[in-house]
Amino acid sequence: MKKQILAGVLSATMVVGMSGVSVFAADNADDKTYNIGICQLVQHEALDAATQGFKDAITAELGDKVTFDEQNAQGDSNTCSTIVTDFVSDNVDLILANATPALQAAAAGTADIPILGTAVTEYGVALDLDDFDGTVGTNISGTSDLAPLDQQAAMLNELFPDAKNVGLVYCSAEANSQYQVDTVKAALEELGYTCEYYAFSDSNDLSSVATTAASESDVIYVPTDNTVASNTEILKNICLPEKVPVIAGEEGICQGCGVATLSISYYDLGVATGKMALKILVDGEDVSTMPIEYAPQFTKEYNPEICEELGIEVPDDYVAIGADAEEESSDDADAESTDDAAEETTEEAE
Question: Looking at 275-328, which runs of residues are DSSP E strands?
């Protein structure tokens, strides 16, 4: 009998002890913090927006339980490698690779830490994958900024049906830029255009290459190219005086030097990437089984200032770049005026 009582006491003690462990484990899970390394290739509007969207999505869920080590490579792919090496040494929980060279550096730097890319156009091209089917299958996944390139070619045809020669201006050091211009070239040639490549190796020879392109082209097409995105003023100062319109691969480039684009929201792309990160970090999903995600919608946009200067009329289904911001600003101003009027009325009544 005494043995039975002793066994019961021990059993109860073990249950209490195990319950305590469970509570302790739950508390530890609640208190878990995360350190995320962000390697962004270069500072420009599109990549900045993607990084911000990523951080906002994660912070909204984790608050102060997440810290970001945000590093910018200033356009140097070698610096991307150095940044990733530091992240690996610090044993970060996840790496965000913003733009293709950052993704390539992260892929070379670690096979263990989960990597999410964003603002990467084509993962199969970026990572040199044969028979890429939409899932990388290693420690890498992410989001793509690939727009429907055939529709971008159709946009050029819609706006400039009488043009003959299209110059394809891009950085030869960016593999995804090569992929885009190859695809657009094929689509444009089916539409009857003559296309010519104008490749530059870095920002130092962009000016000379763009000058040649502007003198030999009726229209210029620029893909989602990071080097161009960081140097749109160069292209604008060359093409605008020559009256050569530029069709751009994304909104930021179009705002800087283009007339129109079929673009995505890079902020929303970053948010989608942040949600993928939460699935990995919080829900325990396996990054190797996560397919690449794509932007859900694309918008036809135009640059009012440059279109007006070149005398280009766009169809009604195009949206002016910055129109939403102007509308919000107008709404804020109207609200402020209403508040002021109400305040004046109150003062008069008093």
Answer: 293-294, 299-302, 319-320
DSSP letter (8 states) at residue 318 = -
Contact 228, 168 (CB under 8 A): no
Structure tokens given for 116: 């999410």
Residue 206's pLDDT is what? 96
pLDDT in tens, 276-303: 999 999 999 999 999 999 998 899 999 9
Q: What is the pLDDT of residue 189?
A: 98
Instruction: For the chain, give the number of residues.
Output: 350
Q: How would you list the strands of the sheet with 293-294, edge to edge?
A: 66-72, 34-40, 94-98, 115-120, 140-144, 293-294
155-197 confidence digits (pLDDT tens): 999 999 999 999 999 999 999 999 999 999 999 999 999 999 9
What tokens were used for 257? Answer: 């030097």
246-248 vs 194-200, strand pairing mode: unpaired
pTM flag (> 0.85): no
**Residue-level pLDDT at 5:** 43
Q: CB under 8 Å to 59, separation ≥6 — which residues?
A: 66
State the Rg of the chain over Cα. 26
Report whether 40 contacts 54 (CB < 8 A).
Answer: no
Q: Which residue type sits at 64? A: D
- The Cβ-side half-sphere exposure at 207, using a 13 Å CA radius, reads 4
Cα–Cα distance for residue pair 164/302, rounded to 1 Å: 22
Cβ neighbours for 188, distance < 8 A, ≥ 6 positions apart: 153, 156, 157, 166, 195, 221
List C-alpha distances in Å: 278 to 60, 143, 189, 284: 11, 14, 43, 9
